[in-house]
Amino acid sequence: MGILKSSPKLTLKNDDGEVIYETKALSVRAALIEAMTKKIFLVGVDLSRADLSGLKLINNPDFQHAIFLGADLSGADLEQGNFWGADLRDANLAGADLRAANLAYADLTNADLRQANLRHVKLEYANLWETQFEGADLTDATFEFAKIDQIANLQKGLNLDPKWLRRPLLANFIIS
Question: Is the per-residue pLDDT at 136 higher than 80?
């Protein structure tokens, strides 16, 4: 994980080990909120296994290529967040609000998106293998060239707008 706790500072690092932000905050959540408030550039930040449940994004941070491997983002307000190319494998996003978020090229392998609000989300070229979508709202979501192991994962208990079903999006899925 790219978070180092050393008294009295907490350091956020990217996947290359470069320091992105240092703070005296007492938790990863507090450090991230502080960094977002100060509009710190968070591209590539490593927040693996962090408990960010219920987090609310501030100032539309850019999480391109960020690592949220196994992170808990359940119930988080991530509306309009930019997660282009982010690593969200094994992340818990159950009940999260991801309306109009950019998840293009993101790796959501084995992610939990049950009951998530995915209205207008961009999932182009995303890796959706073993991703759980039960009860998710995918109204007007875009999936062109997304990789998914089974169409059944998208069909179980979803709230899909009927016009979504009429679009030729499924023709562009990469199914293994």
Answer: yes
